[in-house]
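Dissemination and training. As part of the outreach component of the grant, students in the summer workshop were shown how a complex can be specified as a set of sequence lines and then modelled as a single object. The example used during the hands-on session is reproduced here so that future cohorts can follow it. Participants entered these lines:
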Amino acid sequence: MTDKPVMIITGTRKGIGKYLAEYYANKEFQVIGCSRGDVDFELDNYQHFCLDVSDEDLVKNMFSDVRREYGRLDILINNAGIASMNHSFLTPIDTARKILDTNVIGTFIFSRESSKLMKKNQFGRIINFSTFAVPFKLEGEAIYAASKAAIITLTEILAREYTDFGITVNAVAPPAVQTDLIRGVPKEKMQNLLQRQAIHRYGNPEEVCNVIDFFVKPESKMVTGQIVYLGGV
Amino acid sequence: MSKNERIKQVIINSISDVNLNLPKENQLGASTDTVLFGRDGKLDSLELVNLIVSVEQNIEDEFHINVAIADDRALSQKYSPFRTIGSLVDYIDILLKEKLND
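and obtained this result:
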């Protein structure tokens, strides 16, 4: 058991997830992270689970461990996500299923299991990840953007389902951030995308974190079912 | 204590937790015939959700087995396993047997 706020972050092996794990562990949150592979860092206040976020049995076992070890959960950040940037003609069904499993089913399972723990204390914060690719309707990202559109609907509906338990559900939609997710996208295409934003530059993890900090604050208890787009989308 | 008695005790413990948040006239009893949900039931759907989550967690603590009580089969049965304490005991007994045989 711990007096620190307990937070689960999915997809902490690299990118924004890794940044968030380090940021909140250093702020004296007890952070529980997960990813398919092991992480290459060690932190105080950090525990790691290796699992696929869409594997219900493994996820439920993880939540059993969290309940036994910490007795509660305050915050969930559904960061884990995968993408495959390709024309639909060139997108195999296996790839499409993997994207939907990780991005949609993973977010759903973690939200459901988290809220069961959070409701005991009548307090919880769930933060999901959507993307600027949804309103931009980007060609070549049909399945990825569709999965993230589903996240918007999940966020809006779960916000209503969980409100009686004192749990808020919100989403942050980062602009293009230079991580592995966009590694395969041509530079020229990225520049064109940046021009469509009000602020014509890449975002960074600190700016994403700032929005999450706002959602997490106890004073944000009236903020739920909201999607915050960064970069002026 | 037999397995069925242990399951019933788990459910009764969960009912005690749920009763804490119910007005006295809606609080549930502890007999096998106590109606949980449906006609003559006193729980609304949200209170049933609370009860199911509590039972799942208490079953896990008691038997060290993860079960999803509200699975597709439970929701599609002609006679709901959530009707009475007795029917819920029977349903959880089946789920536990299946898990142990996995």
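Chain A is about 45% helix and 15% strand. Students were then asked to discuss how this feature might be tested experimentally.
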